[in-house]
Every structure is written in structure tokens, then in C-alpha cells.
Amino acid sequence: MSNKGTILVADDDRSIRTVLDQALGRVGYQVRSTGNAATLWRWASEGEGELIITDVVMPDENGLDLLPRLKRIRPDLPIIVMSAQKTLLTAVKAAERGAYDYLPKPFDLKELLRVVERALNQPKPVLSEEAEAAADEEKLPLIGRSPAMQEIYRVMARLMGTDLTVLIYGESGTGKELVARALHDYGKRRNGPFVALNMAAIPRELIESELFGHEKGAFTGAANRYAGRFEQAEGGTLFLDEIGDMPIEAQTRLLRVLQQGEYTTVGGRTPIRTDVRIVAATNRDLRQAVNQGLFREDLFYRLNVVPLRLPPLRERSEDIPDLVRHFLNQVSAQGLPTKTISADAMDRIRRYRWPGNVRELENLVRRLAALYADDVIGVEVIDNELAEPPQAPRNAEPSEEETLTGSIERHLTRFFSTQGDDLPPPGLYDRMLRELEIPLISLSLAATRGNQIKAAHMLGLNRNTLRKKIRDHNIQVIRGLK
Q: How many helices, marked H, and strands, marked E, lie in the chain?
């Protein structure tokens, strides 16, 4: 078998070195392995090896501290960092100090071999020299060592040295703003401002003014000039949360900014150049919103340069003990009583589905610290806190003042109660939307006497979109009658 390249392996664990030696040797690589950083440094400084695989923790030196010295003498040498620490800080430090890639332990050998092949066949440039030391691990914005979070850390580490636009997907409470802040705080714009704007919290008529600012007298009540969020975020990061709730008119202006790199204030005439990195987030399916005519397709592709999906807490339940300890330390530092969670109670917390995700977990921990006198929280307390509230009577009739939201909630409550302990089959979201769309479109067509142009305008849909929905749902259109 021909030699595909020479790899230097450094790990204090002899069993891991043996596994790597065998796995790499079987596919044609020549391997030299050591258990200390000094030997690795000597080999590399003498010109040996075409690639390095090194652990972070070694008896004589931290592998991350060795990286900058290796990159100074061998800037084109790819270095793959392994670590059992599994924190965002480790991944970020590895990327900042010039690592080609970062693999958390335990790693998949097939994934390692793929990374090795890429590193040797398509060497990448060095990302940067050693950056300033990051904050202590306890101050990190993201907590978790689960496989789901490891992939998030790897992607984020690769984004730190870039200005690429990122679109973060995730349910409410999964930490989308924390990820956006981490991308800013550990990225190349860390010395600039971080400005956040929640689209769902701003009245539709004020969104353009909030984003782009306005001139004095631009509209009734504009007594002074206002610097919008783009101006406030100049040189830094603008985080647009709940981007799916942005009105179409504002979407058009945002698209123009992303395309041309400039904007005008409301009531202004002079274009203003902007240097801002955009990070957006949503808990909605934007592709479906595009299909419904509620979100511009061209803006979607401008924002979706790097999609990043945050897993819900139920997909990373192994992180819950670390999160609970983190929140307990936080509330203790804020003056609330110090608490611990019993093993049975922690197991109960891990088995809960957490519809509110990390935010719900944090609120629970704060409630436990504030309301319960016991130093050790037992399973009885957790069962009481996580007990489902009593459901409304099944046969309760709607009141005359009941809203559409209330009616839908009553229907869904009855629907879920019929499922017992089982979950409905997949596709519930689309099925429920279909249930709503059919009567909405039918009654809208009836209200406009079958005039599809008027119905599309009233619904806020593109005419072709409305026609497609009529065909898909087999809705009968009767013209001229009401």
C-alpha cells in the first residue's frame, strides 16, 4: 500500500494512540505517535509530518498553547485538535489558534478519516494568529457537551473569522440570541457593538424607522432625528430576531441593504453606507412562509447563507444537569439561597419534554431557589412543579367573546387530550394549517363573490399562490353569488 502521507499523533492516552495508529495505518498513512507535547514539537520543528492530530490535555503542555508556536514555524501544516472537554471555548480557541478542525471525544473514526483526507488533499489557509484569551469557561454563553451541541460549536468555530450572514433556526427558548452574541463576542467584530431587534415586538408601522432611523419631521411625532439599528450597529453585528414576522414592505428595504450595502433613513434622501454583519433568527419555517407569499424568496436566500439549527432541549437531555448547575450558580451569585438537586429529582427533570426549552428550565431553577426552603430539592417538589395544569372541561362551550386564538386553542386542547400518552403522527403543523386554510379561503371567496383578485388582495397572497391553494384544496369557486 502506497504511503498517502505522514501523520504525527499526540495524545496522553496510549489506547487512543493505538486506535489512531491502527485506523490510519490501515488506510495507507504512516503514523508517528507520542504522549507528550515536547516530542511533538521536536518532530514538527525538524520538518516531520504532513499533518498533526493532537489532544488538548497532555502532561507537559496544553495542546492549544502549542498551536501558535507550531503555526509560526509551519504555517501550512494542518492541525486537527481533539478534546474531551467539549465546550464552545475549546472549539473557539482551536479555530482562533489556527487548527484546521476540532473533534470532540469520543469521535467517529470515519469522520476523523474524512477530515484527514480533506486536510491533506485540500489544505486551507491559517485562520489567524493567537487571539486574546477568552473569558473563563463559567462565563461562556452556551452550556452543553452533548453531540448535538458539539456540531453547533464546530460550525460556530468556523464562522468566527468570517462576516458571513447566519440564519439561526430554533424553537422559542433554545438560545438563539445567545448563539448570535457568541458569534459576535468571539468573532472579528467583537470590538464593535452588538444590537438586537425583535421583529415580533415592534409595531408594523415602526419597523422601518427602528431599522433605518428617521429624520426630524419625517412623520407625525418625529420631533427629532433618530438613529436606527443599522446606524447603532455600525462596525458590529445586527441581530434580527423573529425575522419571519417582518412585514413585506420592510423585507424589500432590508433586501436592498443586503444587496447594495447602503440605506436611507425614513424621510431622508442621502444614501448611507453600512458596515454591519447580519445574524437573523426564526422559530418559523421560512421556506413555507416563502411558499405562502409571506416572505420574500430573494431575501430568504440572502439571509440563509449559513443556516444553523439549534436543537430543542429534549434532543440534548444529557446537557440538563450541566445547565441546572449553571443556573443554580447564577441565582446563588445573585443572592438567592444555594440549592442542590437530588439524583431522583434530576432524573425527573431530564425525562421532562421541556416545551419551553432552556428558558423554561432556567425559570424552573429560579423558582426552586426562591420559593423552597429545603437546601436539597427532592423529586416530590419537581413532580409538583412539572405537573400539567388541569385541562378545561372537554364539553365547555365557547363564549360569545371568545377570540379565534381561544377557539383554536380549545380545539387543539381537545385534540391532544384524545391522544392519551401518545404523540400525534408527524406532519401535524401542515395538517392544522390546511384545516384553517380551507374555510379561510372559501369564506374569503364568498365574501368577494368569487373574485380571486380581490380575495388575493384581502388575504395578502399572490394571485398565483391563491390559485394554487384553490386547486390543492379542491375549493369550489362560485362567481357572482354571496
A: 20, 14
Within a domain: 400? no
Alpha helix ranges (H) inside 242-377:
248-260, 286-291, 297-303, 320-333, 343-351, 357-371
Q: What is the pLDDT of residue 302?
A: 95
Q: Are 54 and 71 in contact (CB under 8 A)?
A: no
Mean pLDDT of the chain: 85
* Percent of the chain whose predicted confidence (pLDDT) is above 90: 40
Same-domain status, 172 and 262 = yes
- Looking up residue 283, the CATH number of its domain turns out to be 3.40.50.300
Q: How confident is the model at residue 401 (pLDDT cuts 50, 70, 90)?
A: low
Give the Cβ contact number of residue 373 at 10 Å. Answer: 5
Chain position carrying cell 444553523 = 308
Q: Is residue 184 located within the same domain as residue 297?
A: yes
Instruction: Specify the CATH number for the domain of residue 14.
Output: 3.40.50.2300
* Count of domains for the chain: 4
Cα–Cα distance, 392 to 417 (Å, whole number):
10
Q: Which of 279, 309, 339 is the last residue of a domain?
A: 309
Q: Which three cell numbers stand for residue 482?
A: 354571496
Nearest to 169 by CA among 66, 24, 310: 310
Of these ranges, 303-307, 389-393, 453-457, the one predicted with the greatest mean pLDDT is 303-307
Nearest Cα residue to 327 out of 300, 294, 366: 366
pLDDT at 358 over 60: yes
Q: Which pLDDT score is estimated for 422?
A: 66
Alpha carbon distance 378, 341 (integer Å): 7
The answer to the question of residue 482 being in a domain is no
pTM: 0.60
As a whole number of angstroms, the distance between CA 258 and CA 203 comes to 23
CATH number for position 343: 1.10.8.60
> Does some domain include residue 394?
no
Q: Measured on CA atoms in the order 95, 98, 101, 103, is the torsion positive or negative?
A: negative
Please check whether residues 299 and 320 belong to one and the same domain.
Answer: no
DSSP, res 244: G
Cell 469522520 belongs to which residue?
A: 111
Same domain, 167 and 303: yes
Per-residue pLDDT tens digits for 41-77: 989 988 899 999 999 989 988 889 899 889 888 888 9
279: part of which helix (H) or strand (E)? strand 277-282
In a domain, 479, yes or no: no
Residues 210, 266: Cα–Cα separation, whole Å: 10
Same domain, 246 and 276: yes
Confidence of residue 479 (pLDDT cuts 50, 70, 90): low
Full residue range of the structural domain in which residue 430 is found: 414-473
- Cα–Cα distance, 210 to 141 (Å, whole number): 27
